[in-house]
Design brief:
Blueprint: H1 3-12, H2 15-28, H3 41-61, H4 68-87, H5 102-115, H6 123-126, H7 144-168, H8 180-204, H9 207-214, E1 221-223, E2 226-228, H10 237-246, H11 254-263, H12 269-279, H13 284-295, H14 299-336, H15 353-367, H16 379-388
Antiparallel strand pairs: 1-2
The protein binds protoporphyrin IX containing FE.
């Protein structure tokens, strides 16, 4: 990393979260916590100007060609800075046609394009690629609830990645190969871990702190002219690898295909490649279905099938938890109690909450193989396989 990148990184790990946290404490004691304009203006100005000095140094330096890791760190740091400017209402895409932060935009566009990612901070910056320095990882504030959220998210993502990796290695073996048993078992263990993590988040994360002091940093903002949606814990390929490998979601479905296309650039290039790879294979469910009519009664078929159905059940449980517990408790509940005039900024992806909830419901229904009249889920196929276990 160049001296300018290192100085920016040090600032992002020290003064930046300190100033954000000071602002959060000012907002949190207000009657209307969503009304942050005109509050803490001196701190906001310091945050903007100190960050700008670092951005300017990097922007002047240009692309130093120091490789992916260094570029990725710079993209994350300029992204965290721009997301904080958005959170503190120093910019708002609804009232501007282009970002007022021209150098930060140029830097983000340049670096993002050079590594093949959207020009904003991505989930990986705060999760699986959040490099700790002496135990301290990057964050917007030092609030315990923010660390709880980013740490459990990262653990959840790692668990899903382990499950996807285990299933992926079954493809060359074939579902009826007896040695696939260890891979099904590894995937089941990883999914149980993901379930435990979701339950822990539900039990321990403070609803108000999350909603008022953590979530606002995940709003959409403009980079240059274009508005980019916020990051969310779903921007990693593991979840979609699980969708496609199990066969519960299909890349041929128009809703699902759109989702894959939309999230591509929010993922690491290696995740993008893994996802493309999964789109080119027959799912495990389709492999079982192709054998079911003729071999449904045979032991070599039924034993791995039972392991596969268990995977589908565990994966469905993670989807139920996400929808009925996490989204409901930490987004829908507090949003319902919020002043109507602030509703526009609630979701990370930008659409109104009811539109977002419908999209999340559809994913939930795919992953739980729930029967639906309007879209084709795997409800009937999974019922048929379950009956053969
Ligand atoms: C407090 C905890 C969490 C809350 C409140 C939450 C809420 C949400 C919301 C509201 C979205 C839609 C994004 C948007 O606003 O536009 C979303 C997306 C997503 N989240 Fe979470 N989430 C939480 C934790 C997690 C965890 C731990 C995981 C798994 C590691 C996860 C996986 C996903 C995925 C995969 C998506 C993309 C849509 C999908 O494919 O289902 N989330 N989340």
């Amino acid at each position: 990393m160049s001296a300018a990148s290192q100085a920016f990184d040090r600032w992002i790990r020290s003064s930046f979260p300190q100033m954000n946290e000071e602002l959060e404490e000012l907002y949190y004691v207000r009657d209307d916590r969503a009304d942050v304009e005109g509050v803490g203006d001196a701190i906001k100005a310091a945050l903007r100007d100190e960050g700008h000095a670092h951005v300017l140094a990097l922007w002047r330096e240009g692309n130093t060609g120091e490789g992916f890791d260094s570029a990725f760190e710079v993209l994350g740091n300029v992204g965290l800075y721009m997301a904080a400017l958005r959170r503190h209402e120093l910019t708002n895409p609804a009232r501007e046609e282009r970002s007022p932060f021209r150098e930060a935009s140029s830097l983000a566009l340049h670096v993002g394009a050079s590594i093949g990612m959207a020009p904003r901070f991505a989930t990986a910056h705060l999760a699986t690629r959040n490099r700790a320095v002496r135990g301290v990882r990057k964050s917007f504030t030092f609030l315990p609830d923010e660390f709880l959220f980013i740490d459990e998210n990262a653990r959840g993502i790692l668990a899903m990645q382990r499950a996807a990796d285990a299933l992926f290695r079954i493809l060359p073996l074939g579902v009826t190969n007896p040695v696939a048993d260890v891979q099904f078992a590894a995937a089941a263990d990883a999914l149980r871990e993901a379930i435990a993590i979701n339950a822990r988040l539900f039990d321990t994360l403070d609803v108000d702190r999350f909603f008022w002091s953590v979530r606002p940093y995940y709003k959409p903002y403009r980079v240059g002219r274009q508005e980019y949606r916020g990051a969310n814990a779903g921007d990693f390929s593991g979840i979609n690898e699980l969708d496609l490998l199990t066969g519960l979601c299909r890349a041929s479905d128009p809703h699902y295909a759109q989702l894959l296309v939309d999230k591509m650039l929010f993922m690491l290039p290696e995740d993008q490649a893994r996802l493309r790879e999964c789109m080119r294979h027959t799912s495990l469910m389709d492999e079982f279905l192709a054998l079911a009519d003729v071999h449904g009664g045979e032991a070599w078929f039924r034993s791995p099938l039972a392991a596969f159905v268990e995977i589908c059940d565990l994966f469905a449980e993670t989807a139920r938890q996400h929808h009925a517990m996490l989204v409901e408790r930490f987004i829908v509940g507090p949003a319902a109690r919020m002043n109507e005039r602030h509703m526009a900024g609630v979701t990370a992806s930008g659409p109104p909450l009811d539109v977002l909830l419908r999209a999340l419901q559809l994913l939930h229904d795919f992953r739980t193989a729930a029967p639906r009249k309007d879209v084709e889920t795997r409800s009937i196929d999974l019922m048929r396989l379950r009956a053969l276990c």
